[in-house]
Automatic annotation (TrEMBL):
GO molecular function, one term: ATP binding
Keyword Nucleotide-binding assigned: yes
PANTHER family (alphabetical): MAGNESIUM-CHELATASE SUBUNIT CHLD, MOXR FAMILY PROTEIN
Protein name: AAA family ATPase
Protein source organism: Methylocella tundrae
Amino acid sequence: MAEAVTASFEAAMERSAETALDRIAAARAAIETIIFGQTQVVEEALVTLLSGGHGLLVGVPGLAKTKLVETLGIVLGLNARRVQFTPDLMPADILGSEVLEESSDRRRSFRFVQGPIFAQLLMADEINRASPRTQSALLQAMQEYHVSVAGERHDLPQPFHVLATQNPLEQEGTYPLPEAQLDRFLMQIDVGYPDRAAERRILVETTGAPQAEARHVINAEELMGIQRLVRRLPIGDSVIEAILDVVRSARPGEGDPAITQHIAWGPGPRAAQALMLATRARALIGGRLSPSNDDVAALAVPILKHRMALTFSARAEGETITDLIAKLTQRLR
């Protein structure tokens, strides 16, 4: 009896996985008809959302970060909103506030007016331009998926994802994100320049009269179903050990002293959790039902980079976080 139940469960999971693979492939193809030359960025953004997490997009202006988030909202069927973060933005501008209303019989009461955070996909554009007080308003929402206003709890829509953008060049008038908030982002997605062929395609296809438009492929319910599937995918002990090795060896006092001597502070257990989920999601995007060490190595930089800091002497010597993580993952490939 137990064997029959197990076989039935495995068959149902296999059918769900096959359907998910088709839907993910269709969604990725739809996104790449709008976003050119950013294959890795698109993949990492999808990994972030399929893992149920939040992403921090870092890149200079003009690299289609905003366009990518808009396209993701349309293709994945999510209710998306955008907030332009500025120094004068207040927490109530994001969360919402209570307003005093008077009824026809002159009775007064407070009514909560939802802010833009009540969306399934929130784009926090140039998040580091807002004050720390406003940035911290996102902390509870990103971790606990609800907000508290005037002592009352208000649950956020499901699914709920934050994709924030940040300009790494212009730092005047900005407020660096605190480590506690950076840790809430599952992944830091670095957006670089496209290659020559991709940039030529951008010139041809975006400066004419007819332009491609994003099309709806997946709805929110299907996305949440895929997120549940990601959590059920099997993962081998060797991959779990690889995740632990990479994360733990990136902390001061653990791992190779030649590497850890350059690290001021390293990633916590939340980084290992993120890597565990992300490797499963990347495997699914690649058409596989189980992650490998290659997935761990490919995702180590975007997941660990914003959760580590170099010592002063390491920065003076020209070391970078990316190079250190690359050394930690060499033996996985």
